[in-house]
Design goal:
Bound molecules: 3-phosphoglyceric acid
Distance between the termini: 24 Å
Structural class: alpha/beta
Number of strands: 12
Radius of gyration: 20 Å
Largest sheet: 7 strands, parallel
Length: 306
């Protein structure tokens, strides 16, 4: 049985060593493909893999077709929009994610981004504080919940909108529940996005919501770039000189945004929300353990292509 770790953006060494130990400890063969430069390298590497661990690597139908022995693919992380689930299901391949394992790293980055943009990206001049501001959390899942907890430490007021989480749960955790997105955006100085990229959410954050934000409002995106309507973002930032956008996933029009709006916008050079040794260890080892568990006991708890 061969388990391949295919990561264009590699895990930390300590995480890779841990994955190898789990895989070999179970009697399987460990293989890795890191920093690959083209999809062709991935196609070649998956040819004889029985199990595959990836990060944001695209597991397309072509990859699935090339992986003749593949039985399970685990996205070591939360969002699995990089997996072609239909192609996996067609072949009877189980697709999983590792929910919650890298959430703390992403949540810390979201708070860090709020401080960074409030202090004018560490350029001289008067900034502002998070204390007393309202943070609107769009989707109260693993990351959103941690962002709320951290933001409370900064003295922020927390509001959230999530139609999939019972209101009582949010209220019990000291979070005010927004009745809809309009209320969330209109009452929040910061809105932090924690929604997945799906057919429903792609392009869903645009002018209508951004225009609702109070003066000086800031949108924080540690989720996916696809959820933003980038043309409308550009338009609204042009119309509202007070609004700001900070993101862990650079928009396609970032160079133009930066040129036009300077310190009101910032994007990390490469997605770094889960780029901590701790997150790598948590998600990578969970992926390896889920694979071993699947092969030995048939456990499919984290399957996402049911
Ligand atoms: C996730 O969905 O778990 C995060 O976006 C992390 O993605 P990465 O593993 O590519 O850093």
């Amino acid at each position: 049985m061969k388990v391949l770790v295919a990561t264009e953006k590699p895990f930390s060494k300590v995480a890779v060593d841990g994955i190898q130990k789990i895989v070999e400890g179970a009697g399987y063969t460990f293989a890795k493909l890191e920093k690959y430069a083209s999809p062709a390298e991935l196609l070649a590497a998956v040819a004889d893999a029985d199990a595959l661990i990836v990060r944001s690597d695209k597991v397309t139908k072509e990859v699935v077709d090339a992986a003749k022995n593949l039985k399970i693919v685990v996205r070591a992380g939360a969002g699995y929009d990089n997996l072609d689930l239909a192609a996996c299901s067609e072949r009877g391949i189980v697709a999983m994610n590792t929910p919650g394992q890298n959430s703390n790293a992403v949540a810390e980055l979201a708070l860090c981004m709020m401080v960074y943009i409030s202090r004018n990206q560490f350029t001289p001049g008067t900034g502002s504080e998070l204390k007393g501001k309202t943070l609107g959390i769009q989707a109260y899942g693993n990351v959103g919940r941690l962002v709320a907890a951290l933001a409370k430490g900064f003295g922020m007021k927390i509001m959230a909108f999530d139609p999939f989480v019972p209101a009582e749960k949010m209220v019990a955790e000291g979070v005010e529940v927004a009745k809809d997105l309009n209320e969330l955006y209109s009452k929040s100085n910061f809105v932090s996005l924690h929604i997945p990229a799906t057919e429903q959410t792609k392009g869903s954050i645009g002018a209508a919501l951004l225009k609702e934000m109070p003066k000086g409002g800031c949108l924080v995106n540690t989720a996916r770039k696809e959820v933003i309507n980038e043309a409308e973002l550009m338009q609204v930032l042009g119309e509202r000189e007070d609004l700001k956008y900070i993101t862990d996933v650079a928009p396609a029009n970032y160079a133009e945004l930066k040129e036009k709006f300077g310190n009101r916008v910032f994007a990390t050079p490469k997605k770094m929300g889960a780029e901590t040794a701790e997150a790598n260890i948590n998600a990578g080892l969970a992926a390896a353990n889920q694979i071993v568990d699947f092969f030995t006991t048939g456990n499919k708890r984290f399957q996402v292509n049911k």
